[in-house]
Amino acid sequence: MNAGEDQGSVSASAVEDVVAPLPRVTLQAFCETPGVAATMQAAIADRRMDKAHARIHMGGPAAAVEAFRAAPTPNIIVLETVADAGSLIGHLDTLSESCDAGTKVIVIGHVNDVQLYRDLIRRGVSEYLIAPLGTLDVLKTLSELYVAPGARNLGRMIAVMGAKGGVGSSTVSHNVAWAIARNLDASTVIVDLDIAYGTAGLDFNQDPPQGIAEAVFAPERLDANMLDRLLSRCSDNLALLAAPAMLDRTLDLPEDAFEQLFDLLRATVPCVVLDVPHVWSGWTRRALISADEIVVVAGPELASLRNAKNLIDLARANRPNDAGPKLVLNQVGMPKRPEIDAAEFSKALGIDVLTSIPFDAQLFGTAANNGQMIAEVQAGGKIAEAFVQIASSLTGRGEAKRSKRSLFEPLVAKLRRKA
Hints:
8-stranded mixed β-sheet; Rossmann fold; alpha/beta; 419 residues; 41% helix
């Protein structure tokens, strides 16, 4: 395999299928069976439908025809049918007479009929799904209605949060982002959400004049070009959106304060790592729930166990269609400190510990004081390998072979040309 082929194969596997959140659209579903109605209800309750306004009705295509005889149609109409093909086609032809331009129609049927599928596509139906189907099948189909043909995959967003203050979640998030960028060869942006006290700039030995504050406090100016100027380059594949770490203003931010920023980042880079501070507010909750992967960093002691359980229970309740949170135990083996064993920690929370990172004051202190990552201070060590393991688990990829050519995403490439 040559370098170009290696890069291509790595790039293709860099990010698993990520279902994009829907934009602000209206949707009405007309179901005929309780099973499909329940699936649609579960899809509507998913985090990716937060911006959409959706309603579910019973009655199928006939009810849709009556509903829109004198009413405007929504952006998306979902129709379930148990009738024969002729009856369905008749209802669709009638519905087309009152459909507004731009309305998209999805049909859910119970028969695998190629000819029916062709007839529906000819009539402008966006997709034909066959029941029974899962919640993610519905979400993926709805999402794809608003993804441009040929557009590359949506970037994966990883949120890292500590179960309590001082457990080293920022250090973990920074080293994991570095491992994704360097070892897995995926363009990555790390976002320091701790605007008042963030340490990402220190950890990467960066002191950019601008950063996340400009994006959050002037959202009306935020676009791809402005985001490009706010990012500082840490390495070939890694860029940083740093926090100013100043107390010149308080952070009473609205719940959707970072929404526009996250949307831009998702559309620009394959991987985004959020360093989420240990505070509880509407915007931190939203950042966690909306992420594709959640990492909870805990110390091996009781307060971390309690808080980690609360965070994991919250994620499970609000993200039923997503992978569960990942648990990382940090600072394990601190001298003279009684600790909860990893097996007991795992049993109490009902999830496996992804990895345990040993306490090493000398190594972590040296890295922090020098503005370096652990692998830069001690390449090939067990702790550096632990961060690569976490990165591989979060992205679903193995370690990439290093080639002579670097893989640059457009945004990071611009940063390099400026340097």
